Amino acid sequence: xNHPEPIARLIDELQRLPGIGRKxxxxxxxxxxxxxxxxxxxxxxxxxxxxxxxxYCSVCNNVTDVDPCALxxxxxxxxxxxxxxxxxxxxxxxxxxxxxxxxHVLMGALSPLQGVGPDDLxxxxxxxxxxxxxxxxxxxxxxxxxEGEATAIYLARLLKPLGVRVTRIAMGxxxxxxLEYADEVTMHKAMEGRREV
Length: 197
Hints:
- This protein has 197 residues and is an alpha/beta fold.
- It has 8 helices and 6 strands.
- It has a 4-stranded parallel beta sheet.
- The termini are far apart.
């Protein structure tokens, strides 16, 4: 059965979102259809507002509605820069409440198979921040996957000659999990990153 054109178009658009397949898009479309007009209008306005008001920080590349962002304008330790792949990674680290330094968002990771090279990432601006002076440590907090590891290695090679300490976030078995469910790479990283107690 074919859907009426407006529903079919909405399903097609929702399906373009990451993690949303055909069935999920269809469920969302019919949910939107059933909601009161005011709720649908609020959703439309929220999407429009994000597109109109959100930009990227000229210092760290995080999402913001003011430039520079609140983190770059705040009372942060600018001697330490934590490098992450995407803006949501900043929020994940901030939720921990421990890190008080600055951030730098690369806007991706190196992935030759996907056509993402060094010039596609915000690497030049990171190097410029370090070369400007005052930075003592760069923490590479890229994802623990092939692309993230390749990006961390590449950045370390560029940063070390600049006389800055380059560190990598620890990886291993998450708190609250069982060792029997950890894969080989996770166990290897956990053993490699062990510390004295």
